[in-house]
C-alpha cells in the first residue's frame, strides 16, 4: 500500500486590525510540499473578555502563489489592472470567546500559500492612545498536510497498469511536464473491475489553486478507452493525477494509463547563445575555446535572418535578461533590443522569471507599443497573452488566454490603438510568459509575409506608479517575506490610490491647510499677554509652539498643499514637545511659586517631557502626566498662599469670574474636542478649534504681573536706556 506522512506547520498568532488599507490585513505565509494529497487549515480566532469586546466578524482570504488581492472597501483598482475576486470565508466571534474553524483542500498545489485576515472597515474616529482600551482580537493559522511519500511516476509514452483498490482509496500518480510542451494527451484504457461489471472511474488532473481552480475532470464508464487533451500544460512542473473508483465499495478497478506530449521547439537562438554572440570579441580572445564559441555564435547569429527556418517552428523565443534593482523591483531587458518582431505564423515568446519566491509581493507591469510603420496591413492586430506556468501558443484560436491549468491576461495593439498596458497585482510565484502574434482579417493572403515591430517594456515594481501623488508606498514584512501596499490620503482610495470617489478637492485641501496652520496665530494674544506681564520665558515657549505647530501641520497635510521646512519627524516631535511644555509652564506660572523654584521646575519638567515623548510620542500620559503633576503643585501653592493670608487664593472675585473660570472652561472644551470629537473627516476643523481654544485659555489663565514690576514704558525706555536697569533689591526688601 501507499505510505502517507502527515506534517504540521504553525505560525504565531497575530493581533487583528480594522481594515483601512492592505497593511491592516495580517498575512500568514506557508509552503506546501510536493506530493501533498490533503491540506487542512486550522484557523483559531479569539477575543478579549473585557466589556469593550463585542461580537465581531473576521474575514479570512486564501491564495496560492501570492498574497490575496482583496477589496473589502469596494474601491476601484487601477485602470489597466485585471483583478479576479479572492476566495474568502467569514468567522464570527459572538458570545464565544474563541472560534475554531477547519478548511480542507484536497490535492492542493505545491508551493507558497498565503492567508490574509482582517476585521471590518475601520471607524473614522481618531482614538487618543490611553483614553480607551481597544479589544484585542487574535488570529492564528496552522497547517496540516498529508503527503504521499512514494507517489508513482507516469512516464511519457509508456503505458502504466494500476489498480484502484476501493472508492475510499483513490490512486495518485504524477507525470513531469517537459519544457516546450505544447500539448498533453491522457488516455485511460483497459478498464476492468474485479466483479466483471461495467467500469466507472473518475480521473482528476491537476491540483487545486485558490481563488480559482482549473482541475480537469474526466469520467470514464464502460470498457471503452477515454482520453483528454490539454493545451499548454505547465512547463517543468509535476502534474498530479488522481483516479477514483465510482463502483461498489468492495470492487477494485484495474486501469492502464498513458500520457503523451507534443513538444514545440523554439525557432530562434537561446538566450545563452545570443549572449555569446554579443561577446564574440571576448570569446575569440581565448585561443582554447575560440573555435567552438565562434561556431556557436555564428549559428546563433544567423538564426534570426533565416526566415524560412523561423516560420517552420511553432514559436520564436526572444532572450530576456532579468535585472534585479531593489526589493520587489525587477526590470526585464531584451537582449535583441527593446522591439521584437511579431509575425502571424508562430507566436513570439518572452520568458519573465518570477520564481524566486520574493517577487509575488509587487506589481508586474507589461507595456506594449506598436511601431505603426512596421505593419503593412491596415487592419492587422498584434494580440498578446501574459500567462503563468506555461505560454499560450495558439493565440489565433484562443482569444481568452487560457492554458491547461491557468487563466492568462489578454492584450492587443493595432493601428487604431498602438499602446496597451497590463498590471498584474501580486503575480503568483512562477515563470511567466508573454506571447505575441500577428492576426489579420480573413481574406488577406499577404498576412503570412507581414511582420510587426512591438516595443516591450516589462518590470516588477513594489507599487504601481508609486501609489500616485495621494498615496504612500509602504514595504510590509511577515517574517522573511516582503510585500508592498499603498496607504492613501486626502480621501483617495483604491489599491493604487486612484479612486477619487471620496477625494478632497484642491480647494478643500487648501482650506484644511490654512485652518490648521493659521489657527496657531491665536497664540499671538497669549504671547502678547505674557510679554506685557513680564513672563518672557513663557512667551518664548508659546512662540516656539506656535512656530512648530504651524509648520508641522503645513507638512502633515495629505494632499498637494504641503510645505515641509525640515524633516517631518523632527517637526512632529517639536510640535508635540512645544504643546506639552506650554501646558507645563502655564500651570506652574499660575502656581506663583518662587522664581528660582519655578525655573528649576521649568527645566527639569521640559527634560522629562522630552524623554517621555521619545519613548512614546502619542501616549496620553505624556500630556496628562505633566498636567496632573503641575496641577498638584499649583493647588499646593494656592493652599499655602490661602492659609498664609487666611483667605481664599486668588482673593479677587474678578480674577475668578473674568479670567480663571473662562480659561478653565475653554481648556475643558478643548480637551473634550481633542479626545472625543476628532475624526478623519472633520480633523482639519476640530483640530483647528483645539488650537484656538488652547491658545485662548492660556491668555485667560496667565496670572497678573508681580506688583513690584512696572508696566512697559516704551518711550521712556527707548530715550533713557540707563533706566532699564532698576534696583530690584530695594523694591523686594524695602521695609513697609
Question: What do you see in this structure?
Answer:
Residues 287-303 have a biased composition (Low complexity). The structure is a single chain. The chain has 736 residues and is an alpha+beta fold. The protein has 4 domains: 4-148, Jelly Rolls (Sandwich); 160-263, Jelly Rolls (Sandwich); 316-395 and 410-461, Jelly Rolls (Sandwich), CATH 2.60.120.680; 506-701, Rhopdopsin 7-helix transmembrane proteins, CATH 1.20.1070. It has 14 helices and 31 strands. Strands 20, 21, 22, 24, 27 and 29 form a 6-stranded antiparallel β-sheet that branches. Strands 1, 2, 5, 8 and 10 form a 5-stranded antiparallel β-sheet that branches. Helix 6 (523-532) packs antiparallel against helix 7 (536-555), helix 8 runs antiparallel to helix 9 and helix 11 packs antiparallel against helix 12. The N and C termini lie far apart (113 Å).
Count of separate DSSP helical elements: 14
- What is the residue-mean pLDDT, rounded to a whole number? 83
How many distinct folded domains?
4
Kindly provide the radius of gyration, computed on alpha-carbon positions and rounded to a whole number of angstroms: 37 Å
- Unreliable residue runs: 269-312, 723-736
The percentage of residues in β strands lies in 25-35%
CATH top level of the largest domain? Answer: Mainly Alpha
Helix share bin: 25-40%
User: In angstroms, what separates the terminal alpha carbons?
Assistant: 113 Å
In total, the number of strands is: 31
CATH fold-level topology of the largest domain: Rhopdopsin 7-helix transmembrane proteins
Largest sheet descriptor: 6 strands, antiparallel
Seen as an oligomer or otherwise, the chain set is single chain
Level-2 CATH architecture of the largest domain: Up-down Bundle
Outline = elongated
Task: Specify the structural class.
Answer: alpha+beta
InterPro entries: EGF, NGX6/PGAP6/MYMK
Transmembrane segments: 511-535, 596-615, 621-640, 656-677, 683-702
Family: Belongs to the TMEM8 family.
Disulfide bonds: 463-473, 488-497
Amino acid at each position: 500500500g501507499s505510505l502517507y506522512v502527515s506534517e504540521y506547520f504553525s505560525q504565531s498568532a497575530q493581533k487583528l486590525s480594522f481594515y483601512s488599507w492592505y497593511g491592516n490585513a495580517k498575512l500568514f505565509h506557508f509552503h506546501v510540499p510536493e506530493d501533498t494529497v490533503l491540506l487542512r487549515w486550522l484557523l483559531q480566532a479569539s477575543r478579549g473578555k473585557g466589556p469593550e469586546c463585542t461580537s465581531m466578524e473576521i474575514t479570512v482570504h486564501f491564495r496560492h502563489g501570492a498574497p490575496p488581492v482583496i477589496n473589502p472597501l469596494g474601491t476601484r483598482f487601477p485602470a489597466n489592472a485585471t483583478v479576479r475576486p479572492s476566495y474568502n470565508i467569514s468567522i464570527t466571534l459572538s458570545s464565544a470567546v474563541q472560534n475554531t474553524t477547519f478548511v480542507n483542500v484536497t490535492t492542493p498545489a505545491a508551493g507558497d500559500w498565503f492567508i490574509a485576515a482582517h476585521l471590518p472597515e475601520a471607524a473614522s474616529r481618531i482614538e487618543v492612545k490611553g483614553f480607551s482600551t481597544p479589544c484585542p482580537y487574535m488570529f492564528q493559522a496552522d497547517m496540516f498536510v498529508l503527503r504521499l511519500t512514494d507517489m508513482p511516476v507516469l512516464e511519457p509514452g509508456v503505458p502504466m497498469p494500476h489498480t484502484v483498490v476501493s472508492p475510499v482509496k483513490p490512486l495518485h500518480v504524477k507525470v513531469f511536464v517537459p519544457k516546450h510542451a505544447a500539448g498533453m494527451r491522457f488516455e485511460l484504457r483497459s478498464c476492468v473491475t474485479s466483479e466483471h461489471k461495467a467500469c466507472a472511474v473518475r480521473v482528476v488532473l491537476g491540483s487545486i489553486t485558490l481563488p480559482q481552480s482549473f482541475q480537469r475532470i474526466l469520467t470514464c464508464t464502460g470498457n471503452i478507452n477515454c482520453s483528454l487533451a490539454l493545451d499548454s500544460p505547465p512547463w517543468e512542473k509535476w502534474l498530479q493525477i488522481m483516479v477514483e473508483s465510482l463502483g461498489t465499495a468492495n470492487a477494485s478497478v484495474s486501469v492502464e494509463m498513458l500520457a503523451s506530449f507534443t513538444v514545440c521547439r523554439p525557432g530562434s537562438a537561446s538566450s545563452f547563445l545570443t549572449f555569446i554572440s554579443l561577446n564574440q570579441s571576448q570569446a575569440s580572445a581565448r585561443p582554447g575555446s575560440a573555435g567552438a564559441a565562434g561556431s556557436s555564435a555564428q549559428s546563433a547569429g544567423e538564426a534570426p535572418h533565416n526566415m524560412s527556418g523561423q516560420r517552420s517552428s511553432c514559436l520564436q523565443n526572444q532572450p530576456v535578461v532579468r535585472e534585479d534593482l531593489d526589493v520587489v523591483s525587477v526590470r526585464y531587458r531584451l537582449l535583441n533590443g527593446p522591439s521584437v518582431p511579431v509575425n502571424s505564423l508562430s507566436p513570439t515568446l518572452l520568458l519573465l522569471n518570477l520564481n524566486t519566491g520574493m517577487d509575488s509581493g509587487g506589481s508586474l507591469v507589461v507595456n506594449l507599443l506598436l511601431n505603426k510603420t512596421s505593419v503593412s496591413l491596415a487592419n492587422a492586430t498584434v494580440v498578446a497573452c501574459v500567462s503563468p506556468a506555461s505560454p499560450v501558443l495558439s493565440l489565433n484560436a484562443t482569444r481568452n488566454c487560457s492554458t491547461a491549468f491557468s487563466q492568462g491576461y489578454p492584450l492587443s495593439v493595432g493601428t487604431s490603438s498602438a499602446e496597451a498596458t497590463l498590471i498584474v497585482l501580486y503575480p503568483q510565484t512562477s515563470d511567466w510568459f508573454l506571447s505575441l502574434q500577428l492576426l489579420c482579417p480573413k481574406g488577406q493572403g499577404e498576412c503570412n509575409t507581414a511582420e510587426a515591430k512591438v516595443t516591450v517594456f516589462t518590470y516588477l515594481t513594489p507599487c504601481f506608479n508609486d501609489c500616485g501623488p495621494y498615496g504612500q508606498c509602504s514595504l510590509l514584512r511577515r517574517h522573511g517575506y516582503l510585500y508592498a501596499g499603498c496607504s492613501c490620503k486626502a480621501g483617495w482610495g483604491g489599491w493604487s490610490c486612484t479612486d477619487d470617489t471620496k477625494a478632497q478637492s484642491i480647494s478643500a485641501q487648501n482650506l484644511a491647510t490654512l485652518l490648521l496652520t493659521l489657527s496657531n496665530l491665536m497664540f499671538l494674544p497669549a504671547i502678547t499677554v505674557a510679554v506685557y506681564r513680564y513672563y518672557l520665558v513663557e512667551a518664548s515657549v508659546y512662540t516656539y509652539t506656535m512656530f512648530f505647530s504651524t509648520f508641522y501641520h503645513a507638512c502633515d497635510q495629505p494632499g498637494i498643499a504641503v510645505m515641509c521646512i525640515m524633516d517631518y519627524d523632527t517637526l512632529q516631535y517639536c510640535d508635540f514637545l512645544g504643546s506639552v511644555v506650554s501646558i507645563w509652564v502655564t500651570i506652574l506660572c499660575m502656581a506663583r511659586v518662587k522664581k528660582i523654584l519655578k525655573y528649576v521646575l521649568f527645566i527639569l519638567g521640559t527634560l522629562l517631557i522630552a524623554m517621555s515623548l521619545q519613548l512614546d510620542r502619542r501616549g496620553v500620559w505624556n500630556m496628562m502626566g505633566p498636567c496632573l503633576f503641575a496641577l498638584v503643585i499649583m493647588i499646593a501653592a494656592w493652599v499655602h498662599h490661602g492659609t498664609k493670608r487666611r483667605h481664599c487664593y486668588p482673593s479677587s472675585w474678578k480674577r475668578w469670574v473674568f479670567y480663571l473660570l473662562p480659561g478653565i472652561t475653554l481648556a475643558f472644551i478643548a480637551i473634550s474636542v481633542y479626545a472625543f470629537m476628532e475624526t478623519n473627516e472633520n480633523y482639519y476643523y476640530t483640530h483647528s478649534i483645539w488650537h484656538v481654544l488652547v491658545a485662548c485659555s492660556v491668555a485667560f489663565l496667565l496670572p497678573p504681573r508681580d506688583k513690584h514690576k512696572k508696566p512697559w514704558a516704551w518711550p521712556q525706555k527707548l530715550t533713557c536706556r540707563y533706566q532699564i536697569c532698576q534696583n530690584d533689591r530695594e523694591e523686594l526688601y524695602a521695609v513697609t
